[in-house]
């Protein structure tokens, strides 16, 4: 393992006047009212703002993911990638490869038993940068600049976050890290063994609280405390981000898959290089597609090319399927409106905000999946959607905090 000190990385970044200018711009324009455009607009930041009262207080998002860089069967090597995104950079800059900070990289034949043993140098440094900060002397500023750093988020894919919070994982009985929903062990739809499924009840289950994440209720699937809960910026289960990942239980005939795959492949030629949404023929290479490709598929391809095919099939559930598409499309907007105050009386007319509509669409999808579909189709990714509206209220738009960045970074490696 190698560790590049965070203070050095931040110091090198802020030595450039162009980066200092971007930090200043974010600082001066960071809060909007009645719409969410970034993590700084979420409810969590209202409490955290007191730690960000100067332009070089750095807000960081940590992402954790493990993957196998070489496909070598039993001799495969596992890499644990930890990566920091500097939220002070504008949204179109922060996810560029040159601007993301890869801190410790653990490499070995096995996944580390406890990821926090690798993270401890980073957490110690963060503690110091949060409390005392550091001074940077730069020639073209009249005074030395003071840098502080705080973590706003610690997230990753489902197994990555399970490692970070000592959760028993999404295949366990209490398989949601955000709430205490009890999963059911059912025969998988293909009949090839048991799986854990999360239909819950018709009403949405309440979130976990500090008792869980401090490791005080290990019977609910969070086995031990984690260092993030001691940070001044820690707030709730949403500190660990939220997956905007949706798989649907609908299948298409093989010839329809081929036709859609062909359209996707042809559209590839029209795409500018490197543009998100260039997903190619995901049916032909579904094993190598990343989860983010399926989100693009759901939002861009399903309502257009696939809708036609399902309509031809006489699919009886197009309405709930479109609720899912509409909910996910709203979640992926760069600006999501919300009503800071609920209407005073029931029946008061108020234009529903994007966040209200998103909540309604995903509730419709949940109700349909709960009432009309076999419960062994209710997988964890569908359950996570029931938390999405609350997560967006707390953390701002998913695009600003997406785990997409680390998945793309892994693709690059
Ligand atoms: Zn849950």
Which SSEs are present, and which pair or pack?
Layout: H1 6-14, H2 17-28, E1 35-36, H3 43-48, E2 57-67, E3 78-86, H4 91-94, E4 101-108, H5 115-131, E5 134-136, E6 145-156, H6 158-165, E7 184-187, E8 194-197, H7 210-213, H8 254-268, H9 291-312, H10 318-331, E9 336-337, H11 354-372, H12 380-385, H13 388-395, H14 404-412
Parallel strand pairs: 2-6
Antiparallel strand pairs: 1-9, 2-3, 3-4, 5-6, 7-8
Bound molecules: zinc ion.
Task: Describe the protein in words.
This protein is α+β, with helices and mostly antiparallel strands and about 425 residues long. The chain has a domain at about 255-405. The chain is built from 14 helices and 9 strands. It has helices at about 5-15, 15-30, 45-50, 90-95, 115-130, 160-165, 210-215, 255-270, 290-310, 320-330, 355-370, 380-385, 390-395, 405-410, and strands at about 35, 55-65, 80-85, 100-110, 135, 145-155, 185, 195, 335. A hairpin with an 8-residue loop joins strand 5 (about 135) and strand 6. Helix 8 (about 255-270) crosses helix 9, helix 9 (about 290-310) runs antiparallel to helix 10 (about 320-330) and helix 10 (about 320-330) packs antiparallel against helix 11. It is globular, with a radius of gyration of 22 Å. The structure holds zinc ion. Zinc ion binds next to loops. Zinc ion binds near residues 176, 178, 179 and 383.
């Amino acid at each position: 393992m190698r560790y590049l000190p965070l203070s050095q990385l931040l110091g090198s970044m802020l030595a450039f006047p162009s980066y200092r200018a971007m930090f200043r711009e974010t600082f001066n324009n960071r809060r909007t009212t009645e719409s969410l455009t970034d993590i700084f607009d979420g409810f969590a930041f209202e409490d955290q703002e007191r730690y960000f009262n100067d332009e070089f207080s750095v807000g960081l998002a940590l992402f954790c993911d493990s993957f196998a860089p070489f496909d070598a069967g039993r001799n495969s090597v596992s890499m644990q990638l930890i990566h920091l995104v500097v939220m002070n950079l504008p949204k179109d800059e922060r996810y560029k490869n040159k601007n993301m900070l890869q801190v410790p990289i653990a490499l070995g034949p096995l996944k580390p038993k406890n990821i926090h043993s690798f993270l401890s140098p980073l957490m110690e440094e963060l503690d110091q940068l949060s409390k005392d900060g550091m001074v940077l002397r730069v020639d073209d500023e009249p005074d030395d600049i003071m840098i502080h750093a705080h973590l706003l988020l610690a997230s990753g894919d489902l197994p990555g976050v399970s490692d970070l919070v000592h959760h028993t994982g999404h295949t366990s009985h209490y398989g949601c890290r955000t709430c205490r929903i009890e999963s059911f062990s059912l025969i998988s739809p293909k009949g090839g063994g048991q799986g854990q499924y999360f239909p819950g009840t018709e009403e949405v289950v309440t979130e976990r609280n500090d008792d869980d994440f401090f490791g005080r209720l290990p019977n609910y699937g969070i086995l031990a405390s984690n260092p993030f809960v001691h940070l001044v910026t820690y707030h709730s289960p949403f500190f660990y981000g939220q997956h905007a990942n949706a798989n649907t239980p609908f299948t298409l005939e093989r010839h329809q898959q081929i036709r859609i795959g062909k359209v996707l492949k042809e559209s590839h030629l029209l795409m500018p290089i490197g543009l998100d949404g260039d997903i190619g023929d995901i049916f032909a290479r579904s094993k190598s597609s990343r989860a983010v490709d399926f989100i693009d598929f759901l939002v861009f391809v399903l309502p257009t090319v696939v809708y036609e095919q399902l309509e031809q099939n006489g699919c009886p559930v197009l309405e709930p399927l479109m609720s899912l598409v509409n909910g996910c499309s709203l979640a992926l907007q760069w600006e999501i409106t919300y009503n800071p105050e609920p209407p005073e009386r029931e029946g008061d007319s108020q234009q529903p905000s994007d966040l209200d509509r998103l909540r309604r669409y995903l509730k419709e999808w949940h109700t349909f999946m709960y009432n009309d579909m076999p419960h062994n189709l209710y997988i964890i990714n569908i359950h996570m959607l029931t938390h999405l509206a609350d997560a967006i209220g707390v953390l701002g738009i998913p695009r600003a905090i997406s785990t997409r960045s680390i998945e793309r970074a892994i693709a690059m490696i």
